[in-house]
């Protein structure tokens, strides 16, 4: 699918397989998610603009390049998105962070917003919305809509695992969005969980179940 980027790398496949294992505990789960997020960020940041400046090496002057990470905003979808936040911040430590709280209504499976706080989005801001699981796509579409209503543009979605249904849902509604994911799994089950997936990422991160 256009604008879908499945980042296939041996290290990602290796680490993700450990995360899928039901016996992997929260400490190792968090560490692996952080590591995979670093690798995803490397790919998802390829289109960031660069500013040129002069650098003097021990030999001579040359042209240096700088990413203006003060014009980058990371928006984790609470709560599982927090597990990916540190991985991005390691690479772009001056980025701003917005927070968006959504939960899925157990009956309708529709997202419900309960909290949001964003920095001011400027015209040339680059925004990364992060959530480990892109399942139905409903929560991600709600997140994109909320960010756009707050003048957010240049939006990229990053997820650990995506379903074909969720990817289609997002790209059908927002064809301008690019999605970077570590794996495109088989499908959703009747409870809207990704198969084979890895269970509920939030519960596994924070041992809440």
Automatic annotation (TrEMBL):
Entry keyword set: Allosteric enzyme, Glycosyltransferase, GTP-binding, Magnesium, Nucleotide-binding, Transferase
UniProt catalytic activity: UMP + diphosphate = 5-phospho-alpha-D-ribose 1-diphosphate + uracil
EC number(s) on file: 2.4.2.9
Binding residues for uracil: 194, 199-201
Cofactor note: Binds 1 Mg(2+) ion per subunit. The magnesium is bound as Mg-PRPP.
Domain Phosphoribosyltransferase: from-to ranges: 6-208
Pathway(s) annotated for this protein in UniProt: Pyrimidine metabolism; UMP biosynthesis via salvage pathway; UMP from uracil: step 1/1
Cofactor: Mg(2+)
Activity regulation (record text): Allosterically activated by GTP.
GO molecular function, one term: uracil phosphoribosyltransferase activity
Pfam families: UPRTase
InterPro entries (UniProt xref): PRTase-like (IPR029057), PRTase_dom (IPR000836), Upp_B (IPR034332), UPRT (IPR005765), UPRTase/APRTase (IPR050054)
One GO cellular component term noted in the UniProt record for this chain: cytoplasm
Family (UniProt): Belongs to the UPRTase family.
Record PANTHER family: ADENINE PHOSPHORIBOSYLTRANSFERASE (PTHR32315), URACIL PHOSPHORIBOSYLTRANSFERASE, CHLOROPLASTIC (PTHR32315:SF4)
Function comment: Catalyzes the conversion of uracil and 5-phospho-alpha-D-ribose 1-diphosphate (PRPP) to UMP and diphosphate.
Name of the featured protein: Uracil phosphoribosyltransferase
Gene that encodes the chain: upp
């Amino acid at each position: 699918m256009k604008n879908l980027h499945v980042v296939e790398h041996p290290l990602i496949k290796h680490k993700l397989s450990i995360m899928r294992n039901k016996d992997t505990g929260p400490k190792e789960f968090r560490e692996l998610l952080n590591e995979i997020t670093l690798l995803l960020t490397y790919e998802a940041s390829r289109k960031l603009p660069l500013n040129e400046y002069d650098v003097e090496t021990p030999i001579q002057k040359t042209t240096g390049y700088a990413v203006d990470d003060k014009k980058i905003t990371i928006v984790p979808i609470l709560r599982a998105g927090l597990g990916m936040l540190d991985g991005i911040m390691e690479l772009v430590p001056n980025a701003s962070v917005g927070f968006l709280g959504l939960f899925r209504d157990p009956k309708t499976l529709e997202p419900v917003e309960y909290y949001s706080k964003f920095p001011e989005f400027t015209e040339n801001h680059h925004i990364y919305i992060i959530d480990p699981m892109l399942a139905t796509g409903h929560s991600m579409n709600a997140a994109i809509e909320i960010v756009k209503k707050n003048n957010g543009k240049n939006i990229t979605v990053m997820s650990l695992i995506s379903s074909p249904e969720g990817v289609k849902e997002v790209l059908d509604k927002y064809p301008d969005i690019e999605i970077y994911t570590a794996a495109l799994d088989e499908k959703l089950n009747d409870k809207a969980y990704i198969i084979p997936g890895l269970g509920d990422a939030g519960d596994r991160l924070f041992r809440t179940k």
